[in-house]
């Protein structure tokens, strides 16, 4: 969350200066980068939250609804939702509980796997996720405060970091058709 008025100096730049002054120059750039990403996350998250909160959604709830809306049938096994959202199954269960309470999703038995439960998007859930996405696109993503070329560079740098940290692997390319 951004302060009510801007600070008179950049506290991360000051922390970097202090890092260097205390003999940690070799780690100062990384400390500043990590601190900047974490602070940026707070600012970005508060912008998204301000748009979603009036709709009764959190970003976690929106992510699950959006994921379901991208599927052919509006349904996924709970375990698949957990894997795709990269969150613990307990977190998905908690989000599904709240969405189900609001009649935005429902649980169904998996048709071929007796151990699995599907989470299914309801018509009300589909309507809300479309509305929320439109508002989020208009109020946040269309004017993020970062030039388009910088967004692409930033995304590429962060993707490389995530891949090298073991967050994902590049997909195996499909062979050319015969």
Automatic annotation (TrEMBL):
This is MarR family transcriptional regulator. Residues 30-163 form the HTH marR-type domain. It comes from the Bacteria. InterPro entries: HTH_MarR-typ, MarR/SlyA-like, WH-like_DNA-bd_sf, WH_DNA-bd_sf. One of its GO terms (biological process) is response to stress. The lineage of its organism: Bacteria, Bacillati, Actinomycetota, Actinomycetes, Micrococcales. Transmembrane segments: none annotated. GO terms for molecular function: DNA-binding transcription factor activity.
């Amino acid at each position: 969350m951004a302060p009510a008025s801007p600070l008179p100096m950049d506290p991360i730049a000051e922390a970097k200066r202090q890092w260097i002054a205390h003999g940690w120059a070799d780690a100062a750039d990384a400390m500043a980068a990590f601190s900047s990403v974490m602070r940026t996350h707070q600012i970005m998250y508060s912008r998204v939250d301000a748009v979603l909160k009036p709709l009764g959604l959190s970003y976690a709830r929106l992510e699950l609804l959006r994921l379901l809306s991208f599927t052919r049938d509006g349904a996924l096994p709970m375990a698949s939702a957990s894997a795709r959202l990269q969150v613990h199954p307990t977190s998905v269960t908690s989000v599904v509980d709240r969405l189900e309470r609001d009649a935005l999703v429902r649980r169904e038995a998996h048709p071929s796997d007796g151990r699995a439960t599907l989470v299914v998007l309801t018509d009300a859930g589909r309507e809300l996720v479309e509305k929320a996405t439109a508002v989020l696109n208009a109020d946040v993503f269309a004017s993020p405060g970062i030039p388009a070329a910088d967004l692409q560079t930033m995304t590429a740098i962060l993707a490389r970091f995530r891949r090298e940290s073991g967050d994902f692997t590049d997909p195996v390319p499909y062979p050319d058709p015969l």
